[in-house]
Design brief:
- The structure is a single chain.
- With 218 residues, the protein is of the alpha+beta class.
- 40% of the residues lie in helices and 21% in strands.
- It has seven helices and nine strands.
- The strands form two sheets. A seven-stranded mixed β-sheet has the order 2-1-5-4-3-8-9. A two-stranded antiparallel sheet has the order 6-7.
- Helix 5 links the parallel strand 4 and strand 5 (143-146).
- The structure holds nickel (II) ion.
């Protein structure tokens, strides 16, 4: 890369950071951005230097307050969605659960190090009681997190998750629009990688095994 192009790219990055993660992923792929790490199927490339994730304080499906420290030492496989979602969210959460089960068959110790986490972007409907039934239905170890509208907005911003109220189906029922990446966060809470929505569970399982093993031996 030529030196004089750097300020321009910095400005582009700043502009794109305002737009959101999806745009950055696209930009990075179009630009053939630095991809020096071998990546598996479904793994998105994020612009270098871009922060994804961070501190949070939310409530789990048992009504307990949890923070990023609650999961220190664990990998978190994180998906943002809502329990009233008719199709995409259930498919994605089932895929995460299947990936962990595949990993558990190949490498039980590695699977134990990954906690699947569902974070709602619809806290008005996804109360603690709703998540108590919803999250474990996909996987016995799946954690469901909710919080105030402000708390959800804060964590969504850190993960660069887009969400907004969508179509009103009838007087009571509405859809939510939202981005659909699956994030892998490391035992130190730092971003590891993220998967495009619809990535097959076997590819996610392979990536999980690779990252968990790399962390255990480094
Ligand atoms: Ni959804």
């Amino acid at each position: 890369m030529q030196r004089k192009t750097l300020p321009l790219i910095g400005a582009m990055l700043a502009a794109l950071a305002a737009i959101g993660l999806a745009a950055l992923v696209v930009w990075n792929q179009l630009s053939g951005g630095s991809d020096d790490v071998a990546r598996g199927d479904g793994e998105a490339v994020v612009a270098p230097g871009l922060s994804v994730g961070g501190e949070f304080e939310l409530v789990n499906q048992d009504g307990e307050t949890v923070t990023e420290d609650t999961y220190a030492g664990q990998f978190m496989l994180v998906y943002f969605g809502y329990s009233s979602c008719p199709d995409v969210c259930p498919t994605e959460l089932s895929g995460m659960a299947t990936a962990i089960d595949i990993l558990a068959e190949r490498d039980p110790a590695a699977a134990e190090k990954v906690t699947p986490v569902f974070i709602t972007i619809d806290p008005a409907r996804d109360t603690v009681d709703v998540l108590k039934d919803y999250a474990p239905a996909f996987h016995p170890r799946m954690v469901g997190l909710t919080g105030s509208a402000e708390d959800i907005e804060a964590i969504a911003r850190k993960y660069r998750v887009y969400y907004a109220k969508g179509q009103q189906i009838d007087e009571e029922f509405y859809l939510m629009n939202h981005s659909g990446y699956v994030y892998l966060m490391g035992p130190d809470g730092a971003f590891v990688t993220m998967f495009h929505g619809g990535t097959d569970p076997d590819s996610i399982a392979k990536a999980l095994q690779r990252y968990v093993t790399a962390t255990a031996t480094s």
